[in-house]
# Entry
Amino acid sequence: MLSSEGLCSSPPPKQYGVTKPISMSGPTEADIQRSRELEKFLSDAGLYESKEEAAKRERVLDRIGQIVKDWVKQLTRLRGYTDQMVEEANAVIFTFGSYRLGVHGPGADIDTLCVGPSYVNREEDFFFVLHNILSEMEEVSELQPVPDAHVPVMKFKFDGISIDLLYASISLLVVPDDLDISNVSVLYDVDEPTVRSLNGCRVADQILKLVPNVEHFCTTLRCLKFWAKRRGVYSNVTGFLGGVNWALLVARVCQLYPNAIPSMLVSRFFRVYTQWRWPNPVMLCPIEEDELGFSVWDPRKNPRDRTHHMPIITPAYPCMNSSYNVSTSTLRVMMEQFQYGNKICEDIELNKAQWSTLFEPHLFFESYKNYLQVDIVAADVDDLRSWKGWVESRLRQLTLMIERDTYGKLQCHPYPHEYVDASKPCAHCAFFLGLQRKQGEIIQEGQQFDIRGTVDEFRHSINMYVFWKPGMEIYVSHVRRKQIPSYVFPDGYRRPRHPRVTAQQQSDKLCYEDGGACRTGSGERGVKRKKDPDEVDVKNDMLEKRCSISPLRRDSFSPDIISHKFGGTSPTCLAFAEGNEMCQIDEKRFCSDDVEGGFTSNSSVITSLSSEVGSSEDNGNESIAGSNEGNNGSADGSVEGSNNLGYSRSDSGDADSMCHLENVCADGSGVFQDGLREELEPNAAVGMLLKTVGGVEEEAVQKPVLRHVF
# Structure
């Protein structure tokens, strides 16, 4: 037994992170058993690759390493360097991301970085010479250069293994094989894209150095990444969190509970982040500044940093916010999912639930009554790959634009999964965004969400794609829950329709007022019904229906997607009903056709700026004025349903406006437990509580500024 003198003389435990740990407690027998069950669940879920696949990855990396070495030697010889220089010429391959952290699964891509000498550049040598070398190799397929990305990358498959290859030219004539990429000297005399390329590897190395137990960190991160994918919140490009973001969040929890094992860390993860007071930043170490002069994340100095909603700061110089893509809407969705995870973990600790419950998929298509469906088509699979990547990268902007132009009252939930309808004659994929009125928002009578300019601005941002080819088209349609196409469900499963029509189902139908009564597309008279607060209705102008010639089969889309090219303004006006307030989309009726599942749809191209808002009665019942007469298009008859808000690519657009979001910070709704408030408060004490300085943003913003409080 240790004496009191011995205890006093022992050195204090090492502190990880910017604050003291919340708890130094280790696991109980129950925690150890739950960790065993968790690891077994992850293994049974197929999250670990086989030894054969691991060996194949090693062989592929060795092969790529030799290819880039030969490439640099070839360029050295062509540029007239001496034979000795040619002999010493070198390039080194580093890995980062999930592969470097040891949490990759079967079929995952490998994030790689090629570091080359100063005389080998990215623009010509990497994206042209090396690209041509790879394109001629039998092992290489799906080669896709992305030179204009925030971090320029070349994507391809090598012998079936997906590779994301970055390039960084450092200020050395000869790159040594034992280059220490963590040393800040590699950043001397390089440009910003090179810094961003190098930082992927530098951040991964720092994370592994800053966690108390790498093995426990990896198991916990593997678990949380799987959970995030199942719950639909794993995607940096659409405004959620990507791999490095989740790694940093998990690493911080490991620092706060240094002796915890995976089952404990998963539970503590949800406990911490349901109570985290965003936008207080998550940091693994203090933010360092260096004489190199690169900008670091600091809301006290940089006004743009004050607009970040969920700052998760990288630990390597220059420290950056890795989650700047997060918006008000996506933060709301993630906080809801953290609450879900916290509740399930509490039940697991009380033996009321199993680990499998935590990983049940999010029922996105049961969560909203109204959706935006974004269909992306191209002439072939190769064109679709690049076109889809561009459109997907802009979907986050659509979410931000909707938030901005509706003052946050219309919430948009982009779902980070793509769906493919194999029955279509062209290369196709679709994304969906859920729409709902902000809960608890008091809406004034007759208030509308006017997103006409929003949709038009989104079209312009899409039209900026410089590699556009004929056949690349995008269509945005409003669909109701009942009209979601069957190909998004597993095995084409669609929820069964109840034989009895309930009041809720009636509220989901579109009605057209005719003499005081609702009329369906078939002309049958219905009864007036109370308006559902979350429902979106469609009001069609009594204008002539127009149909265009399309290379697509008109029956291949559900809802109808008709190719139509146009210019000018594309208005859309949304309003959600609350009592007498109506939700509508102003549009011109375009074409219609029957769609699968017994539902009908009209596909509309918006060409009119004005339309009247339908009247609503004092008792809350409302109906929508409209007429199907005189619309002699190619469709067979009048219809109800999907409403195409969207566009084929037609005219060139201006650069999309930078969305300036004003962040008004308030205390979180959760109450910190057992000292958690005191332990997390130092983040705010170092000046990281983000509040927009009054007047800074207003001067630069011409469009309405979104204000949000959370």
